[in-house]
Amino acid sequence: MQHRIIVLGAGYAGTIAAGRLARRLRREDASVTLVNAEPDFVERVRMHQVAAGQDLRPRPLDKMYAGTGVTLRIAKVTAVDPDRKTVSLTDGELEYDTLVYALGSGWNSHDVPGAAEHAYEIASRPGARKLHTRLAALGPGATVLVVGGGLTGIEAVTEIAESRPDLDVALATSGELGDWLSAKGRAHLRKVAGRLGITVHENAPVTRVAPDHAELADGRTIPATVTVWTGGFAVHPIAAATTLTLAPTGQIIVDDTMRSVSHPDVYAIGDAAQAMGPGNKPLRMSCATGGPMGWQAADAIVARLTGGKLPHVPLRYFNQCISLGRREGLIQYVTADDRAVSAALTGRFAAVYKELICKGAAWFSSNPTFGLPSSRRSITQPITEMHTPAQQPARQD
């Protein structure tokens, strides 16, 4: 009887995990089913480009997994029951022996009044396409306000300003512009924003979004024909309805092998999981985190099933890659726990570097079995041995 592995979500983490599992386990011993709501892989880190009207290369999942042994199920997940070990879909139900939960995250309005009704989001492809349609309809001089001064907000506002120099583009951030960057990084960011004609509102938390303006905590208003909300991400709500142990963020708490601390048959990766990195700090939601988490989970599952050595590779950061339109970029080097150091790359070379990183992430997700040995391993461990409780991680006070 085959060991049934189900992977939920075909983002950066899920695509890598599914391909890696199928390539490393014998098909006679294990089946790998990948469930995704859409039939193709979405380059989420490029949604600001979609909003600006740029076409991305299609990456159909059936072509990505042709010949790998992965079974695709194009359906929306409606519920997960980790006690019954079932997954409910829009078109039926699946049973699993091992579950890899990689449903990711969406935009987070933080319950700011009017944000959900009047603002546009770019955390999803439908959202980015909707924003593109709206931007394309704007005439010269129309005002566009991007709310949120993190990586997504900075990439969105610079992309829009570069592609539509006829618009009045502004950014509202609750702190200082690029306040987590090095002095060199902050200076370059301000330089590019000035060159693109972006009005920056610092220390300006938005408390309400209206159809034609945004209100700030200090009572000021900023005119906005279009408001783009990039104020953070919220994890997929499915996990909150389960008995899985969750962090306050709604993420599934996992150990260093990406295994749930409460349900050893469940692994969680990408934005859906809270894993601890260097300094016992939670890893941030990002493509840079999701890919390595997918590798770690797949290798841990294979090791436990086949009696191999468990991977304990520390997950760490090296840099933050920020696109500032198509011609400018910023590569901020960081410590292992993601704190900026003085070194940074800027300008055209940084833009090329960021583009290579994006292409590389998409390529590895689209070629999930690259570099893996062709010989598959047999399952040797009895199922009962797989189900020992996972080790509880250190307290996260």
Automatic annotation (TrEMBL):
Gene3D superfamilies: 3.50.50.100. Its cofactor is FAD. It comes from the Bacteria. InterPro entries: FAD/NAD-bd_sf (IPR036188), FAD/NAD-binding_dom (IPR023753), NADH-Q_oxidoreductase (IPR051169). Residues 4-298 form the FAD/NAD(P)-binding domain. Keywords: FAD, Flavoprotein, Oxidoreductase. The keyword Oxidoreductase applies. Belongs to the NADH dehydrogenase family. PANTHER family: 64 KDA MITOCHONDRIAL NADH DEHYDROGENASE (EUROFUNG), APOPTOSIS-INDUCING FACTOR 1. This is Oxidoreductase. It comes from Paractinoplanes deccanensis.
